[in-house]
Design goal:
Blueprint lengths: L1 E7 L5 H9 L7 E3 H7 L6 H10 L28 H8 L4 H31 L4 E5 L3 H4 L7 E5 L4 H11 L5 H8 L1
Amino acid sequence: MLLIGLTGSIATGKSTVSSLLSSPPYNLPIIDADLIARKVVEPGTAGYNAIVSYFGPTTPDLLVPSGPDMPENGPTGKGRPLNRPALGRRVFGDSPEVRKDRARLNSIVHPAVRKEMALGVLKAYVKGYRAVVLDVPLLFESGLDKYCGTVLVVGVKDPKVQMERLRARDPHLSAEDAENRVR
């Protein structure tokens, strides 16, 4: 089975390329590491519990606030969802403390994502697919490129376009937060 790595920085168009590859005439299955990363930290998962345990005591706004639309124990009773912007502020940047927090978050999330990706590849193989696309923003940094028969890198020539795309996609980000994510 051919594993096709798809990678690139944030807000460069990886989702557009994934959409093209999953549509006719290609119809390739897409294993999206970002979607999996969200799944493995949903309330009730081991990843969620580890993040709340590590970051919760020092990040008061780590969870979505409870209120009329959000019960104290979350909509499923397993806990309130992570407040992703608050967690992002803890892990994106260049200070030694931020790098330490990012490494800790990655040590929680990455193993769970790799396991789910491997299961996805296995399922595609069993279904008879001859190729699958691994959409992984940090493909080279994570070492997953060594499993790919080919790699597609999506880039943006003008950094201003990338920032505009990111701010349009995630309007809650301040200019500084967006800059920290692009770096």
